């Protein structure tokens, strides 16, 4: 590995991404400490809290079962706002198009964006379009940035996990990553695996109703559930134990992962969240989630322990325990 | 021209850009009418007005005399906020990196971004980094989105020009586009042409001091002064007359344009603004501008007339009049 060059793994969301962010990007641009890094920044604006977030999307292929780069881009930014407890307000759209890209495909993508924005209740208010010559980009890249409003006094952040917290996920893991991979590689699957791409702000609004019991929310996108749990354990200075048998997993996703040697714990999701909830409220939150269309398969998958700080362990189905680290290298490039 | 494909000219900022925006992108995403399109959206948030804007940068080469893609990206978004009269508050940075891009070059670009942000007084608060395989992007693309606050009750927008308004520019035109072109093509110039890339929020804060006399502000980036004037004439439903001999032009830029057959009126700027100002305040605004380091060569270049609506004319040096249209096709691709 050449230390002087950018590697694909620097975009994985895993260990290499964190190294690049922590050693170069964040200290140079802003100096936000690792414990303060969340899916969106929270700005105090005359006593009113605003959330602000950005994401660029480079998914390959552009269309995949369950979505396309357009609704992915809208939902991704809606979800990043929701993960700090913000109500999505307004969004920008920055398009980078490759010369020769199909105008019809662009139209379909934009229509998906509008539909997703309307569904999430966010307005697309500003944008930009650039075109680069053939071969200088890959069809279409989309940046979405979003502003949200925090209508409450809660602080929901990655440093908020406390020993005893129960960890709840709203459904099956790995669907998005495997759907994109299957579409890209042209895998012929017996069953239909679709991306779980969805806006989570409605579900989060339900959870906010539980008030201070909700400590952390994060969507396990690039790097999957494993990487996200590790990030939170490090940010909060706590340990985490999860139980393999409680992780909701679609049988078809399990099958593809087994054949390809992929661990679903590291596969990206786009419509899932991990909620860290005070133990006394956990069952109530679980019930609330299960009543929501995006939480029917919600499950308590583990809990927070006092230490060792930053350690994540999984109790396996056969009764052992194994340590969970962040994604190393790049398992599935260009998943979002 | 194949109507079904995206062309380079769709990113020019000129006629083709407007056609794509008006026929497809804006109606699909948001439905903002052409008269309401400004450099930034203005959102009313509990009686407080926020500005929100986005731009992606794909400039080639990444480093050029007077700047690089990093400070260009920061200043561009600062300027878009300033053009609606907003004070820049916070910015996001979305990086799309090509596998194999130099980490050292990335470090230099990020350092320039931080320096530019500090100079403009805007905080970089959130970001995202993606990496795509070699050949799927061109080194580095940067999206910056920004939030600003309007600290006053003025409405500064493209539809605000009124007959009689004087049109003031804060300095020479075409420097950015020619500096980038010369760097890209390896032109050996006798004199040094540098990009005018600069944050205009300080200069705008001065102008805001003139209150309601300032009707329109816009930075003539892609498509140059000609395209920007045409946009404003159309948005405001007025005519515009400018005088060629009053347009500030660096002699070296004039020379390169003459040799290459380029019209400086269509060449991009990155540190210039056009201010439309009530006639009684014009001389005062001009003096204020000239006292500012970014306005020393400011000049009144023309005025608004009642009609024909949407028509822009230039009185040439030799005394004729010619109509000015938007940039057609793509004069200089990837200038920002």
Describe the structure.
The structure is a homodimer of 336-residue chains. Chain A is α+β, with helices and mostly antiparallel strands and 336 residues long. Chain A has eight helices and 14 strands. In chain A, the strands form three sheets. A seven-stranded mixed β-sheet of chain A has the order 9-11-8-12-10-13-14. In chain A, strand 1 and strand 2 (48-57) form a beta hairpin. The longest helix of chain A is centred in the N-terminal third of the chain and has 18 residues, at 103-120. The first copy, chain A, starts with 14 loop residues before the first helix and ends in a 12-residue tail after the last strand. The relative contact order of chain A is 0.19. The mean pLDDT of chain A is 95.
Topology overview:
Two copies of one chain form a homodimer.
Chain A: H1 15-29, E1 41-45, E2 48-57, E3 63-64, E4 67-68, H2 69-82, E5 87-98, H3 103-120, E6 123-132, E7 140-149, E8 166-169, H4 175-185, H5 201-208, E9 214-218, H6 224-236, E10 239-243, H7 251-260, E11 274-277, H8 279-291, E12 299-305, E13 312-315, E14 321-324
Helix pairs in contact in A: 2-3
What labels would you give this structure?
homodimer, alpha+beta, 336 residues, seven-stranded mixed sheet, 8 helices, five-stranded mixed sheet
Pair of chains with the largest interface and how many residues each contributes: A-B, 78 and 78 residues
Strand line-up across the major sheet of chain A: 9-11-8-12-10-13-14
Q: In oligomeric terms, what are we looking at?
A: homodimer
Rg estimate of chain A, integer Å: 19 Å
- N-to-C terminal Cα separation of chain A, in Å? 24 Å
Mean pLDDT of chain A: 95
Count of extended strands of chain A: 14
Class per helix and strand makeup of chain A: alpha+beta
Which spans of chain A of ≥5 residues are poorly predicted at pLDDT below 50?
A: none
Main sheet of chain A, how many strands, which sense, barrel?
7 strands, mixed
Percent of residues in helices of chain A comes to: 25-40%
Overall shape of chain A: globular
Helical stretch tally of chain A: 8
Strand fraction band of chain A?
Answer: 25-35%
Q: Which series of helices and strands of chain A comes N to C? A: HEEEEHEHEEEHHEHEHEHEEE
């Amino acid at each position: 590995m050449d230390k002087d060059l950018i590697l694909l793994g620097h975009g994985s969301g895993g260990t290499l991404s964190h190294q690049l962010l922590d050693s170069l990007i964040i200290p140079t641009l802003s100096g936000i400490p690792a414990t303060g890094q969340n899916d969106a920044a929270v700005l105090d604006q005359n006593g009113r809290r605003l959330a602000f977030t950005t994401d660029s999307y480079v998914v390959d292929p552009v269309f995949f079962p369950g979505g396309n780069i357009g609704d992915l881009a809208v939902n991704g930014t809606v979800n990043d706002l929701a993960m700090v407890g913000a109500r999505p307000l307004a969004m920008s759209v920055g398009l980078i198009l490759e010369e020769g890209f199909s105008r019809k495909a662009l139209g379909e993508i934009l229509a998906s964006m509008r539909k997703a924005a309307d569904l999430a209740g966010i307005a697309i208010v500003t944008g930009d379009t650039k075109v680069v010559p053939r071969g200088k980009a890959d069809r279409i890249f989309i940046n979405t940035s979003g502003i949200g409003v925090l209508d409450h006094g809660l602080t929901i952040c990655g440093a908020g996990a406390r020993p005893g917290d129960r960890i709840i996920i709203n459904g099956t893991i790995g669907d998005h990553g495997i759907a994109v991979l299957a579409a890209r590689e042209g895998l012929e699957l017996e069953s239909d695996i679709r991306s779980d791409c969805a806006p989570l702000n409605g579900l989060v609004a339900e959870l906010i109703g539980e008030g201070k019991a909700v400590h952390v929310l994060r969507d396990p996108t690039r790097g999957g559930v494993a990487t996200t749990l590790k990030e939170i354990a490090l940010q909060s200075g706590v340990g985490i134990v999860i139980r393999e048998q409680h992780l909701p997993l679609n049988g078809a996703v399990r099958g593809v992962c087994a054949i390809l040697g992929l661990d679903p714990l590291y596969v990206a999701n786009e419509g899932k969240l991990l909620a860290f909830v005070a133990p006394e409220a956990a069952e109530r939150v679980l019930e609330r989630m299960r009543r929501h269309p995006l939480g029917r398969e919600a499950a308590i998958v583990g809990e927070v322990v006092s230490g060792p700080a930053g350690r994540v362990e999984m109790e396996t189905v056969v009764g052992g325990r194994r340590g969970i680290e962040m994604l190393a290298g790049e398992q599935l490039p260009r998943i979002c």
